[in-house]
């Protein structure tokens, strides 16, 4: 690897090849032809994304275990958590909706949070994460399919409808989902695969990004 040779970058929008230049922290480089953002010099992106990811992981576990809300009816009440909601949808012959919730609200966010925690923790500890090319590609592919915010919106609509007939008590998982929606978005926004590649490129014997 020759660190002295100029790095070329292709514009995602118009394919124009341009030479990379070093940027001041917080600045971004735009394409000279179409003006699209080429790359940013995100300050402390690895540390920030790791903090968001770990906080989101804790909230994700809480959101999955504890009740989202409880309904009080005469003579008793019942609590609803995420797995209970999925089971209810399945039993109500809404199997495709149930599978969609499992995939977009549980499996994909879990996969993304675990993978990102592993990658970023390894980089933080100055290790080279095993299988990083596959993991980075996987984050890129599954990322858009994590839809916690859509689920959150669904819960809020259901709650508003339910309050007209029942006394609804918000649960711990509802607050967790609320904060998780923002943290999950912050994680995706601050994660920079380019920064991860740059960190990997600094270590001896590591292949550079294609
Ligand atoms: Zn361009």
Q: Give the biggest sheet.
A: 3 strands, antiparallel
Separation, N- and C-terminal Cα atoms? 12 Å
Strand order of the largest sheet: 6-5-7
> Which class of secondary structure composition applies to the elements?
alpha+beta
| Average pLDDT taken over every residue | 85
Bound molecules: zinc ion
**Radius of gyration over all CA atoms, rounded:** 22 Å
Order of helices and strands: EEEEHEEHHHHEHH
Kindly state the number of beta strands. 7
Low-confidence stretches: 203-210
Number of helices: 7
What is the global morphology?
A: elongated
Written description of the protein model:
The chain has two domains: 1-41, no CATH class; 44-201. The protein is elongated. The protein has a three-stranded antiparallel beta sheet. A two-stranded antiparallel ribbon has the order 1-2. The chain has a two-stranded antiparallel sheet with strand order 3-4. α1 packs antiparallel against α6 (172-190) and α2 packs antiparallel against α3 (95-124). It is built from seven helices and seven strands. With 210 residues, it is an alpha+beta fold. Zinc ion is lined by residues 11, 13-14, 16, 31, 33-34, 36.
Secondary-structure map with pairings?
Elements: E1 8-10, E2 17-19, E3 28-30, E4 37-40, H1 45-65, E5 69-73, E6 76-80, H2 82-91, H3 95-124, H4 132-142, H5 148-163, E7 167-170, H6 172-190, H7 193-201
Antiparallel strand pairs: 1-2, 3-4, 5-6, 5-7
The structure holds zinc ion.
Zinc ion (ZN) binds next to loops.
Outline of the structure:
With 210 residues, the chain is α+β, with helices and mostly antiparallel strands.
């Amino acid at each position: 690897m020759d660190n002295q040779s100029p790095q070329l970058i292709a514009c995602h929008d118009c394919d124009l090849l341009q030479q990379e230049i070093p940027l001041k922290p917080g600045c971004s480089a735009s394409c000279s032809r179409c003006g699209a953002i080429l790359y940013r010099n995100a300050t402390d992106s690895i540390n920030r994304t790791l903090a968001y990811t770990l906080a989101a992981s804790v909230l994700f576990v809480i959101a999955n275990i504890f009740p989202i809300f409880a309904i009080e009816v005469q003579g008793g009440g019942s609590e609803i958590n995420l797995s209970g909601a999925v089971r209810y949808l399945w039993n109500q012959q809404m199997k495709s909706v149930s599978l969609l919730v499992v995939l977009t609200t549980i499996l994909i966010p879990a996969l993304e949070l675990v993978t990102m925690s592993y990658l970023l923790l390894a980089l933080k500890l100055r290790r080279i994460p095993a299988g990083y090319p596959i993991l980075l590609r996987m984050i890129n592919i599954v990322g858009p399919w994590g839809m916690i915010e859509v689920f959150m919106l669904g819960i809020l609509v259901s709650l508003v409808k339910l309050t007209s007939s029942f006394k609804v008590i918000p649960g711990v998982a509802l607050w967790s989902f609320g904060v998780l929606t923002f943290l999950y978005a912050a994680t995706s926004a601050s994660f920079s695969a380019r920064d991860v590649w740059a960190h990997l490129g600094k270590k001896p014997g590591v292949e550079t990004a294609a």
